[in-house]
Amino acid sequence: MRLDFFRGLAMFIILLAHTPFDPWTLWIPARFGFSDATEIFVFCSGMASSLAFGAAYRDHGWPMGTARIGFRVWQVYWAHVGLLLVVALLLWTLDAQGWGEAGTRYIARVPIVPLFEDTGPALAGLFTLTWVPNYFDILPMYLVILALVPAVMAAHRAGGTPAAAALVGGLWLAAQFGLTDLPSRPWAPEIPWFFNPFGWALVFFSGFFLGMRWIPVPPRSRALLVLALAVVLISIPFAWFRIHDGQWLPQGWLLHDWIAAVRAATEPLWRKTEMGLFRWLHFLALAYLAWMIVGPRGHRLVEPLRLPGRPSGRWLAAAATVLVVTLPWAWVADIQAYAPALDAWLSELMGPRAEAALGFDLFIPGERLNMTSFAAFLALVVLGWAALGPGGRAWIETTGWARFVPVVRKVGTQSLAVFLVSMVLAQAIGAALDVAGRDGITVALGNLTGFGSLILTAYVTGFFKSQPWRRPAPASASASARPAPATASSRAAAASPAE
After folding, report:
1. Sign of dihedral through CA atoms 186, 187, 192, 195?
2. Which of 49, 143, 164, 300 could cross-link with 156 by S-S, CB 3.0 to 4.6 Å?
């Protein structure tokens, strides 16, 4: 249950992360720490692989288990090829029909230009996995890691968990020194895959080892909880660009230089390509916090939530004040799009009038506007929670939560199909936002439409995978489908080659 739930959450985050210029990506977990939804996807895939393929190795032996892995690798390979070709068709259509933003060449945004300008080498590279352009690099990484499973199983059979761990650790260490780089472009083989599968195997097999019970589940400990929380919080200044770039720090603050220097000095430890050590530790800390939050066996996923009640009068007054004060800066794009007269009045009030009265204007630098958006969002949450009333809050804690969890879990159970659809959807949503603009309403509509499409994909995929046509037919249907006694004319019709 927990595996499906968090894998489902990762699918929604991955959609946002791949939608071009989506403002909601400013608030996904990757912005506040070294690890992101990719680690969630790979770790959960490792644990799911232990459940799906471990039994084949255990019950049928190494050859049959390896055959099962080979079949999955075959599926993922063709999923990757099909995904690139479908996205290429979508982006070419946008360019050819002029449906996107004027002046934007969509096939260059991903980029897949070589497929159209140097088609032969690009196709050969696509099918041999020697051309792995950015945006299409997750599935190749995943299928190579899957192909490592037989070797890890053989190592475990030969020397137990220490031997398997040594193999995975050795591959990860080799990746840190560039010894296992794979070429990502036939015309530029010195450029490696963005996701080095031998480095990312550390994340996958962390989940795989846990699922196989080769390593023990960590204890539920207050000390470990505090340590994990400390790792996550300490990482924020070094991972969040608004901090290490100095956007949210006082001008000339010496601490900013120190944060930037430490980040630069430790880059090999948090790089994404090779799965730096800090990224792995950050993910483990997040995973431990999530594991603790949902409770033993995930019981909090099936129980009513326990959320705060109505905020006090002081909290409501503070939230209302923050909302009013931040309004002109927090919704600049929305005010410009839907209330141009208000926008002109606010510009006059905060500009010439403020400068005449105060000696300076009230405009906030663009890189710090997000501070006001964040404050306004928190204020809206407080006021909105109070506005729901006792009945609305109770509904969210009980019925709403009880309906939300199964939907997210359903998305998690069909992760490959959902992932493929999300990668196509992300480009379509990005192009639609290019045309419609990226204010609060259009962005929300685009993202929520994408979420709904992922949910629909999960349920449709689940329907077909269940193969309902193989279930025993109802008695009435069986009787009506029973063939009538043969006649001369019916025997002649049956012998006809028409069908």
Report:
1. negative
2. 164
